Amino acid sequence: MPIDYLPILVMVVVVIAFAAIALTFSALTGPRRPNPSKLSPYESGMPPFGSARRRISIKYYLTAVLFILFDIEIIFFYPWAVLFRQLQLFGLIEMAVFVIVLLVGYVYIWKKGGFDWD
Predict the structure, then answer these.
(1) Euclidean distance between CA atoms 29 and 99, whole angstroms
(2) Residue 18 has what pLDDT?
């Protein structure tokens, strides 16, 4: 029924109104004293050098993706560990298949040089 979605609609309206009011209030009452140090980009306390549009090695992105990939796959071990006794032999075999797939992917990345840092 459409009436069941009324609380969600009210919440969305309240959130949008609160965000609009907060942004408007801070824009109207906030200090406006721009200076060169406030307008410069912040890079960990170091003065910026070069262009912000410089090229970054693809190894950076590859390392990030590999870390996320293996990190997320490790998360699947927790539910299995919690239900280990209930799953019995079936759960053990399924997790063995999962680990084998992980190891095949790991070896493939290793052979392709995905872990070389130079």
Answers:
(1) 57
(2) 97
Q: How many whole angstroms separate alpha carbon 78 and alpha carbon 99?
A: 13
Check: CB of residue 80 under 8 Å from CB of residue 87.
yes
Structure tokens that stand for 28 in this block: 């109207």
What ranges in the chain are assigned the alpha helix state H? 6-29, 36-39, 58-75, 77-82, 84-112
For the chain, domain boundaries: 2-112
Candidates 113, 117, 109; CA nearest to 70 is: 109
Identify the architecture of domain 2-112 in CATH.
Answer: Up-down Bundle (1.20)
Whether pTM exceeds 0.90: no
Amino acid letter, residue 16: I
